[in-house]
Amino acid sequence: MEGRFFTSTEAAEITQCSRRQLQYWREQEIVVPTVNTTGKGRNVYYSVTDLLALTLMEYLLSVGLSFEVCQSALNFLRAVDPKLFELPLHGKTEKRFMLWQSAGEETLRCTEFDEQKAITAIQAGRAIVPIQIEALGKRPEKRLQLVSSPS
Question: pLDDT value at position 1?
């Protein structure tokens, strides 16, 4: 899968996002395709790194988070380590993060995983969403195998 590029249709199938979502995220500059970002349709290609960012967005949206929280988490992770979404492809990474709601706050914020903070938040009935980059990296790999295999 590494080194390959994927059309919008393929990226949508692999990440389980709609083509409209991909287009919107491209327009909003959330996940911009790596190749030919000005093209339409088949001229737009996504890299494996792009697929991992799309998978993260899909995962966070699927647990019921707002678009703004998902975008904020993606931006945080990119700022922490710009190559973070490449790590699952280049060996094991034990980097773990979490979205959590601290005392007195209404919104979730992203931080490196802290077991004690997570336990405290859960015990207090506050939200926590784990983010394990390596596990997310396996999702598009499995889906690619399903999409690529003949029926």
Answer: 47
